[in-house]
Design goal:
Keywords: RNA-binding, Transcription, Transcription regulation. One of its GO terms (biological process) is DNA-templated transcription termination. GO terms for molecular function: RNA binding. It is a single chain. The protein has a 4-stranded antiparallel β-sheet, with no helix packed on it. Strands 3-2-5 form a 3-stranded antiparallel β-sheet, with no helix packed on it. The protein has one domain: Sandwich (Immunoglobulin-like). With 74 residues, it is mostly beta strands.
Length: 74
């Protein structure tokens, strides 16, 4: 099994102002633990870790992963 500290990277590119990228915790209780707000054209490069098991994206954005690309908020 892959070590979570060396987890997959992903890129989020905001296609509009005010896109929120929200990190969710691992464990029994899933909780929000980090939020970033992006304006149109901004990107964030993030990684799944021991603490981050999922990401929620609010707004129109392009998400790029090794599994492919997709758009949110359309």
């Amino acid at each position: 099994m892959e070590d979570a500290r060396n987890g997959d990277y992903f890129v989020v590119k905001a296609l509009e102002n005010g896109v929120q990228v929200i990190g969710l915790t691992r464990g029994q209780d899933t909780r929000f633990h980090h939020t970033e707000k992006l304006d149109k054209g901004e990107i964030i490069i993030a990684q799944f870790t021991d603490h981050t098991s999922a990401v929620k994206i609010r707004g129109k954005a392009e998400v790029m992963t090794k599994h492919g690309n997709l758009e949110s908020g359309i």
